[in-house]
Amino acid sequence: MQARKQVEAKVQDAKARTAVPAVVAPAAPAARPHEFKVGDKAVYPARGVAEVVSIDEKDIAGNRQRFYVLRLLDTDHKIMVPVNNATHIGLRKPISEKEIREIFRILKIEDIQFDNQTWNRRYRGFMDKIKTGSVFEVAEVLRDLSRLRATKALSFGEKQMLEKARGLIVKEIAVARAKDEDKVRAEIEAIFGPS
Q1: Distance between CA 158 and CA 30 in Å, rounded?
Q2: pTM metric for this prediction
Q3: Which of 56, 90, 120, 166 could disulfide-link to 45, CB 3.0 to 4.6 Å?
């Protein structure tokens, strides 16, 4: 038994010395470490606003871990997020009024340069921005696709992405301001004109 523990300790020590540190993208400007409680609203990257419905404990591989159980407001799907990994995943509080003003500033930028990339290359770039969880990156996707739509027809995938970005922004602003989603959507659409 003693020898087994010594071998396990050596293996762990060797792993720690040879482990390659994970490269983690910088946190989105709105990402702040936060301890959530039941009833709080949280934003899950690329999925949107959710409510913390419970905090459960589960045994995983012999270790007791706490999980946030989130219910997505749009779909009622439930997601479990390890409490100790929530910030790394990108779980964050809804945005502040100051951040909402920054979103509207981003959306109002009209001078956007589009290179001659194919639609699928643009799509991948936009998807990468949405996956960051940064509300500002999502606002850029919404702005860029809305401006591009005014100059050319969007692909089916780009149309879906435009709707996704719009939905994420509208829902988060509506929750943050405790405002009706239709009013927020109208305020955003007024920036870009009729669809």
Answers
A1: 25
A2: 0.77
A3: 90
53 and 77 Cβ atoms separated by less than 8 Å: no
Q: What is the pLDDT of residues 88-101, one digit of tens each?
A: 999 999 999 999 99
User: In this structure, are residues 171 and 43 in contact, taking their beta carbons and an 8 Å threshold?
Assistant: no
Give the separation between CA 76 and CA 50, rounded to whole angstroms.
9
Output Rg (C-alpha) for the chain, integer angstroms: 21
Task: Output the six-digit token pair for 52.
Answer: 């913390």
Domains of the chain: 16-94 (2.40.10.170), 97-192 (1.20.58.1290)
Instruction: Decide: helix, strand or coil at residue 58.
Output: strand
Q: Which residues contact 131 (CB under 8 A, 6 or more apart)?
A: 45, 46
- Say what the pLDDT of residue 166 is: 96
Question: What is the distance between the alpha carbons of residues 131 and 123, in angstroms, rounded to a whole number?
Answer: 12
Q: At what angle do helices 135-151 and 156-177 cross, to 10 degrees?
A: 130
In whole angstroms, give the CA distance from residue 102 to residue 97.
Answer: 9
Q: Residue 69 carries which side chain, given as an amino acid letter? A: V
Adjacent-strand bridge partners of 50: 42, 72
Compute φ and ψ for 111, nearest 5 degrees: -85, 85
